[in-house]
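Re: the request from the purification team.
They wanted to know what the chain is likely to look like in 3D before they choose a buffer screen. I agreed to run a prediction and write the result into the notebook, where they can find it.
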Amino acid sequence: MSLEFMGRKLGMTQIFTDVGERIPVTVVRAGPCTVIQKKTPGRDGYSAVQLGFEERRERHTTGAMKGHFAAADTAPRRVVYEVRVPEDEVGALEPGQELRCDVAFQEGQDVSVTGRSKGRGFTGVIKRWGFKTSKATHGTHESFRHGGAISAGTYPGRVLKGKKMAGQHGSRQVTIRGLVVARMDADRNLLFIRGAVPGHRNGLVRVRPDPSG
């Protein structure tokens, strides 16, 4: 089933294969996700499913959303998102149904992970863009980590848009494709994804089957 699961990045660790190979992995708790609403081409013009992730206290939920969750006969959810899926897959789902990670994933499968990268604050061009530093020797004066000239003095006589300069670094949406599910614990909804994924520990991530895999 081509579903996209919301999850939380729990951190990184390492696992070992039967032949002793050490694999660095990121542990993601993917789901369980609850079906909130179904979208059909006849009624909505497209085919999709609305899912909820993690329970939320009712006193932190608006009245409109309480009614929305009650229609699906489920408790309020912290995160509500929508996934486009084929019409035949939507027909196999029902509101209030709980989906576990083994519905959409299996070991050895290629996946894409989307998350929000760590915020680094205001950084210079060396950390933000990977510029080289000036020579730290005699003759270099007060410009060890500067970016150098940013524009010509005559034509065009202005700084062009998109110039790599100092500024806010990180805290943006990042998607990494071609990752592999090295191991899966369906009982605890844990995915052990080979390599690193975007975001800080305990951050929200979205995992989906990679169409290129």
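For the purification team: The longest strand covers residues 173-185.
Please add any questions underneath this entry.
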